[in-house]
Design brief:
The structure holds 2 protein chains of 2 kinds. Chain A is mainly β. Chain A has one domain: Alpha-Beta Plaits (2-Layer Sandwich). Chain A has 2 helices and 6 strands; from the N terminus they run βαββαβββ. Chain A is elongated, with a radius of gyration of 18 Å. By secondary structure, chain B is an alpha/beta fold. Chain B has 2 domains: 226 residues, Rossmann fold (3-Layer(aba) Sandwich); 138 residues, 3-Layer(aba) Sandwich (Rossmann fold). Chain B has 14 helices and 15 strands. In chain B, strands 9-11-10-13-14-15 form a 6-stranded mixed beta sheet, sandwiched between helices. A 4-stranded mixed beta sheet of chain B has the order 5-7-6-12. The chains are: A mainly beta, B alpha/beta. At the A-B interface, loops of A face helix 8 of B. The structure holds iron/sulfur cluster (2 copies). One iron/sulfur cluster (SF4) binds next to helix 2 of chain A.
Chain lengths: 110, 398
Amino acid sequence: MAVNLEAGWREASIAGTIFEAGNSIEYITGTWRTLRPVYDAEACTHCMICWVYCPDSIVLVENSKVIGFDYDHCKGCGICAVECPVKVKAHAYTGQPGKVIQMVEETSFE
Amino acid sequence: MPKSKIRALDGAHAVAEAMRQINPDVVAAYPITPQTAIVQTFSNFVADGLVDTEFVAVESEHAAMSTCIGASAAGGRVMTATASAGLALMWEVVYVAASLHLPIVMPVVNRALSAPLNIHCDHSDSMGTRDAGWIQLYSENPQEAYDNVIQAVRIAERLLLPVMVMQDGFITGHGVERVDVLDDGTVKGFIGEYKPEHSLLDVDNPATYGTWDMYDFYFEHKRQQTDALSKALPAIVEVGEEYGELTGRKYGIFEAYGMDDAEMAIVVLSSSAGTARMVVRGLREKGVKIGLFKPRVFRPFPAKEFAEALADVKAVGVLDRSIVFGAMDGLGPGPLYLELCAALFAAGNTTTRVADYVFGLGGRDIIPAYVEQVAQDLAEIAETGEVKTPVSYLGLRE
Ligand code: SF4
Ligand code: SF4
């Protein structure tokens, strides 16, 4: 952990300067999301368009295949869902016609 | 004593001379009356190759301070200068400089704020930033402006806080006086080298500056600022003593003139202290027990020191060159008065009576007769223990 979240003002770094590189991974920004991108793994052609367009490097890829999304940091902007070029008749999760990536109300997961 | 040279300089040129000797890594500035002579003279030094400074001619004062912040975070010794509307335009980033604990030094040539448009002296500009977290030093004359700027470098870098050095617009800024200018080597030796602990350009130790800070940490970081400021006065005194040993001109928190056995005191900042001192000297010769305080440090405000120094004084007249609009039922006293009253109250002093006199707005002259009038009021207040008019005005047409 780059930052001790319990630090009092004496221990806290001056002015909040963070002396560890690559620290933004520590900050769970996914809690702001109101819509969650959900992809249909069966219908996905692994064209990587979503991977290219995601502004936050959220699309997780292994062996040239999309394996999911980093929901700790995905902000739910929906760019991936707009840019995904592959259509489905009935999405595996939502059952709706549309794209392989569809945006789902975050509250429906709780 | 080190080598020095007596020169005829106005306050702005004296400060530009100090900046040449300091030879900052970066100066980012925008010209504004009556600070222009500082930036113009310094940019001549840059053009003539007399300094190694990277001079950034920015598009506004907001950009000037923003550039200073970046350059200071990058580990440079950094300066700018401004006045009036320029300082007001800087507002947002003036706070950022202090909050990031960056030791930027900024001479301010005090000028009124609009409207109506006015280019002459009062203290509305720097007093407007008194809660921004900067150290503030006020200078009476070109010599003090020169000396304060040199000391400000040491103070800032020692405390990791930015320092503003004020002088009165036109009165000091454009008023030529005798200035004892140290030789370049002496200034270089006194300020030493700046070795920042962290730097934006230290690529081997990358760091994030100016972070996002929510309710979980912001409060702690503000507390760090009060901590740094609460340690500033002794450091300012130490640097002032060291400067005194070197030059024969010792600097402290305030100058007390004729205060031994004084029953009355006048408190005033900057160039008007000269007028007040002359009146006090005359009254002293007549046997009137009156003295003068000229605060040099306004931020942090030396509350304990003032409370102690004024403990046995019966009546104090504060001369304020700006108004805190809306304060005290809208009476609009000045900031010096409010700070002084708070200091006396916190110290449990219920006997010293204080009256405020707003003067000199927009460059209106203060003449000896006004100060004599204050002295007469104080004599009555000391006698009766009663302040009839808490806030009055000197030289205002009724
Ligand atoms: S854009 Fe759509 S089809 Fe292409 S990899 Fe992403 S989810 Fe799969
Ligand atoms: S919703 Fe936005 S942030 Fe989340 S994966 Fe899609 S493009 Fe990236």
